[in-house]
Amino acid sequence: MTESLADLIACPKCDALHRIPKVEIGGQARCVRCGTVLVAPRQGAMTQIVMLALTALILMVGAVFFPFLELHTHGLEHKSSVFDAVLSFSQGLMLPLSFAVAALIVVLPVTRLMALVYVFAPMALGWAPARNARAVFLLAEKIRPWAMAEIFIIGVAVALVKVAGLAQVTLGPAFWAFVGLVIVTVLKDSFMCRVTVWQTLNARSPS
Asked: Do 49 and 113 belong to one domain?
């Protein structure tokens, strides 16, 4: 029974159960009920994921510490970075909010990116998976919904609509770094076939 269940995969959209098919590189396996892509291995995907994750880490540094916005009003000028925004909530009862902002926008995304590099880099080089690679990849998958850098950009865009009527707003380099980070993250996730990753980890990991 355990072995038979290990060969099954549930569609993430409609929960229909399928037996994991053998799919050639470049092919796709879709759900027979709703058409969602279940398996889509790509040539060189692990190398691409590592490169994109490293790029995202570099962009994250700029996004956090470089000026994010510049406000000009009545002859006054103020520059603010994401790091400044986190520190602005660090007093009194707002301290938990500071921790939440830092965790959701910076800590968890960076943790996930580093976890993906740790998991994929050795296998991209043709080596055996790193120690505890399966547990690290499981952690990366669990924190994926909580890594909210892209949600932060949406929130900023909504806020800019209101702030633009009160002051002249200039977008700093950190804003564009965040935009690049979101694009790179979307590309990275589009290259990742999670079923193939688990199959590779199970096949290459020592029993």
From this structure: yes
11 CB contacts (<8 Å, ≥6 apart)? 17, 18, 31, 33, 34, 36, 38
Please choose, from the candidates 146, 151, 155, the residue with its C-alpha nearest in 3D space to the C-alpha of residue 69: 155
* pLDDT tens profile 1-39: 444 566 888 898 999 999 888 899 899 999 999 999 999
N-terminal to C-terminal alpha carbon distance within the chain: 20
How much is the pTM? 0.87
3-state secondary structure of 39: strand
Burial of 204 (0-12, 13-18, 19+ CB in 10 A): middle
* 77 in the same domain as 118: yes
Contact 81, 174 (CB under 8 A): yes
Residues 52 and 34 in one domain: no
69: containing domain: 42-204
- Side chain identity, residue 148: M
